[in-house]
Write a structure and sequence with these properties.
Blueprint: E1 5-10, H1 26-41, H2 46-53, E2 55-66, E3 75-85, E4 89-98, E5 101-114, H3 124-130
Antiparallel strand pairs: 1-3, 2-5, 3-4, 4-5
Length: 140
């Protein structure tokens, strides 16, 4: 069984429309925050990856399904795990729940690139730190 990253968040007024419903694009921000916290939890940050490896992690694509809305002052949990990985990229599944009910599901394709925007091999220490969070599917 693979491990999961968990990130808690609360919905603030700035996240909602005038009716108190979370604006759909804000879920992408919530997912990004959860991925950033996942990086921090294994001892890395986007800035550290850029400075140490001259690389960035970018979103190549995102498939998202909205099931239900979140509302003002809701407390949500974002669960993230690595679904599959290649030499230069990985797919992260992210699930947002409210009171244990799934409200959003996303699959995000993330790619390591160099300063010229070309895909590069995921650094070995980052790969090894992420390994406990991989599902059983590892692609070459």
């Amino acid at each position: 069984m693979h491990e999961n990253f968990f990130h808690k968040l609360k919905i603030y007024y700035e996240d909602t429309d005038s009716g108190g419903v979370v604006y759909y694009a804000n879920y992408l921000k919530f997912l990004e925050r959860a991925r950033t916290e996942a990086l921090f939890s294994i001892g890395f940050s986007n800035k550290k990856i850029q400075e140490t490896y001259n690389s960035l992690i970018i979103v190549k694509s995102c498939k998202i399904e909205y099931r239900k809305s979140a509302h003002l002052e809701d407390e949500l949990i974002v669960r993230s795990f690595v679904k599959s990985i290649t030499k230069t990229s990985f797919f992260m599944n992210q699930i947002i729940t409210k009171e244990k009910e799934v409200i959003v599901e996303a699959q995000v394709h993330l790619v390591f690139i160099n300063s010229e925007g070309k895909p590069v091999k995921i650094p070995d220490n980052i790969y090894s730190k992420f390994k406990p969070y991989f599902c059983d599917t590892i692609k070459t």
